[in-house]
Amino acid sequence: MKKKLSFLSISFILVLSVFLSACGNKQDAGSGNGATGEPQDGGKVTLAMFSAPQGIFNPVFYEDQYDAYVLEYTFDDLFGYDSNLNISTEKSLGDSYKFENDNKTLTIKMKQEAKWHDGKPVTIDDMIFAWEVIADKEYTGPRFSNISMIKGAQEKKDGKADKIAGITKIDDYTVKLELNQAQANTISEIWDYPLAKHLYEGVPIKDMPNAEPTKKNIVGNAEFKVKEIKANEYVVLERNDDYWRGKAHLDQIVLKVVNQDVAIGALKKGDVDFVPQIQPKEFDDLDKNDNVEIKEIGDFGYQYMGINHESTKLQDQKLRQALVYGIDRAAMVKGLLKGHGYVLNQHIPKVSWAYNEGLDDAYPYDVEKAKSILAEAGYKDLNGDGFVEGKDGKAFSLKLDYPTGNPVREQSAPIIKENLEKIGLKIDLQQPREVASHYDAVEQGKTELYLAGWGLVPDPDPSGIFLSTDTFNYLRYKNAESDKLIKAAVTSSDAFDQAKRKEMYKTWTEKINEDVPQVFLYGQNRIEAWNKRVNGVTFDWRGAIESPDAIDWWVAK
Amino acid sequence: MSQYIVRRFLISIPVIILISVILFSLVQLAPGDAFSGQFDPNIDASYYEKMRKDFGFDKPPVEQYFMWASNFIQGDFGISFRHKVEVSEMIGNRIGNTFFLAITAMIITYILAIPIGIFSAERPYSKIDYTITGISFVGLSIPTFYGALIAIYLFSFYLGWFPYSGTETVGNDYTGMAYILDKLHHVLLPAFTLAFLSIAAYTRYIRASVLDAKQQDFVRTAFAKGLDQKVVLRKHVLRNALLPLITLFGLDLGLLVSGAIITESIFSWPGLGRLLYEATINRDYPILMAGYMIIAIFVLIGNLIADILYSVADPRIRYD
User: Fold this and answer.
1) N or C: where does chain B have the smaller number of CB atoms within 10 Å of the terminal CB?
2) What's the Cα-to-Cα distance from A209 to each of A140, A214, A218, A355, B85, rounded to whole Å?
């Protein structure tokens, strides 16, 4: 019986792989794109989304990442980044900005050419309107922390003022902001998507997320307009002929919900043109396909093993260092990520300008060193069972919790246990829990060691996570010196010079690297693939899909 | 009979209340809430505190239950914690798709399973019977996600016969018949995938049931009277053999609305299954409660219809 069953499954796998290769071959014959020559106008491309957008197509209110995909092509903001992560207004609505008065006053000037899709000009009033809405106590979205630096925003939120006191309109395209304090990352932090005042004025703020201009007749201001929304299935965007940066080449971009496992096949077949978030294990297969362009770049996120610093078991710095030496992170990158990632020793990801190269080789995998550090710290195997006992001579083990949902992370948990048991630490590996239960335990400090990950923004400021007072400091890591360094790297006058700021983060990453607030595991690459029939695609740290250059995409007829 | 129906309806009310209490308690007992694990260092932590307060998470569970129940009775299903969208809108967008897929799958199941089951039972222990049995077991053993992926690779990618995602062609302007055909074109592949497993199961039920009926005394009597084989089968065997199908039908009616998580996910079919699955992961209980209450009500109705059909099909059963 057993034999028969296994035979069956093998034959099914064979059948499946025959189809797979058949699909690939069929496509090869059909497409002969040049990828060179003059851009042509017209045509459409299809982008796969793995899940349906929620349909809140308003930058001030959306929270869903697939809503963000639609907003990416339909709404512009005031400030952007260039491909080297420097702040740039070249492709954005902003024109210039200037700090004065010890960096406590910020003057923002907007371009005058931009229009909403209904023809009305985008002015500073729309920007001010967005700030006033976000500061209102009726506002239900999550953006308040992006305007809290403006003087008077908190007072309005608390109901003590009708307007944000720190905003002064100079003319239709210029505004002056009074800031609570000098802050080097103000431009990256401040909310910079205008909200169409002529459409939303008069709509009660709590009804805005479900108002008509948010859900049905979306009026954006970027290179594409929303043409059709089929709830939970697809969104069709069409070219905005009246765009200030010029006309896009494509007629349409279709964003279509396609299952993650099916999207790869659809890409090979030529049914979809762009697929985001490709899994490392798919890379080689797609790379071999002649019709598919696949690229990768380090992402603004990483995975780590958290350490609960309130646990009495984890107070010893030496023990924490042994944890890092004892985990074979390079093998994880090679085996689980198939090389599409890198070992990390700091909170700042490799793609950032503030990344500290000096830490690349900190904590190499070294079983002997880990063992000797443990012995030095007083953790010794007294009863000869292969595991060390605590300093008090009693049995010692550490609990490791991890969540489901990220397949690579799930696979890494048993490996970590195996690695650490090799250096003599007994690990009590818990059953994986779904995300809500896992993070509930983490938030309440019921864990000892736990696996988790961060997705970060381009600005390297780690406050929000690493300050002793931060709510999201689930490590419960308290270090006054670290706090001081983090704050100085944002608020001191030196911080306004990027080179000096980088130096400050170098000091900070080295300081806490020695103290091991958590075990940094790996950074995973962002991998995206698209059909080669689409030309003019730029791929930088944003990937291709979130690049501001969709205006340049074109397909040969 | 009408008295029986009224009585059954009245009994259903406390059952539904009980179901809602159990559901609500289960959701409350699960660790974490809709905002656990939802941290983003760029979003102020106080935002989540505010949301928890706005949605009444800080109130005692009993009070939260009565708040939910009084709104639910008035037809207000609440607002999704995660998506801040009316739950009635989210469910309303999807329930039609779920019905459409499930009913198509059910029709395919009945059309194929009944003849195959009878055919198989007429020739018990023959080579063809063993073949059908074998295929049924294969059908029962294939995991849905695998079957669905094979179906997509074979029928969509390789042969190009059917689409593999959504319920209609992107950006279509079809009307009338063309629209219906487009919808059918999209539903057939997921419906077949969904039906595959139940066809296998139904074939086995029907085969066993027909075989069983054939050995009854009244069948032997019918043959003894000299009736034709076909007449015996149609008039005496089938009528008795298909009775258990009514029970299955009643159960299926409840499953109609619960959706098929895996099939819906792989075919990107916007139905209830996927919504409820995600709501469970996210602890989004307005969606969960509304969704499961609708399923519970359908199961109760399904059972009621099955009981009524029994009395029609089987004169031995009487309800007073």
Assistant:
1) C
2) 9, 6, 12, 38, 8
C-alpha dihedral sign at B302, B306, B312, B316: negative
**Tokens representing residue B280 in the block:** 């469970």
B95-106 per-position pLDDT tens digit = 899 989 989 999
Q: Which token pair is A303?
A: 């995975």
Is ipTM strictly over 0.90?
A: no
Query: What's the pTM value of the predicted model, to 2 decimals?
Result: 0.84
Q: Between B144 and A248, whose confidence is greater?
A: A248
Say if residues A134 and A144 touch (Cβ distance below 8 Å).
Answer: yes
Contact B309, B13 (CB under 8 A): no
pLDDT of A308 higher than 90: yes
| Interface contact B54, partner A, CB < 8 A | yes
Place of tokens 């995602």: B165
Contact B157 A52 (CB under 8 A): no
Stretch 71-100 of chain B: residues touching chain A, C-beta under 8 Å = 82-86, 93-94
**In chain B, what are the domains?**
87-313 (1.10.3720.10)
Angle ∠(A193,A198,A203) on CA atoms, nearest 5? 90
Q: What chain A residue is nearest to B153 in terms of C-alpha separation?
A: A19
Contact B42 A146 (CB under 8 A): yes
- How close is the nearest chain A Cα to the Cα of B252, in Å? 25
φ/ψ of A115, rounded to 5, equals: -130, 150
pLDDT digits (tens, 9 = 90+) for A3-51: 222 223 333 333 333 333 333 333 333 333 444 678 999 999 999 999 8
Contact B171 A228 (CB under 8 A): yes
C-alpha distances (whole Å) from A355 to each of A453, B81, B256 are 18, 37, 54
The chain A residue lying nearest B53, using CA atoms, is A140
Per residue in B33-87, pLDDT tens? 777 766 666 667 777 777 778 777 778 888 888 888 888 888 888 888 877 788 9
Q: Which residues, including other chains, have CB under 8 Å from residue A398's CB and lie 6 or more apart? A: A313, A314, A420, A425, A426, A427, A428, A448, A449
Interchain pair B165, A472: CB under 8 A: no
Structure tokens at A378: 């007083």
Q: Which of A45, A85, A88 is nearest to A545 (CA)?
A: A45
Give the CA count within 13 Å in the CB-facing half-sphere of A456: 27
Contact state of A23 with B157 under an 8 Å Cβ cutoff:
yes
Number of Cβ within a 10 Å radius of residue A160: 10
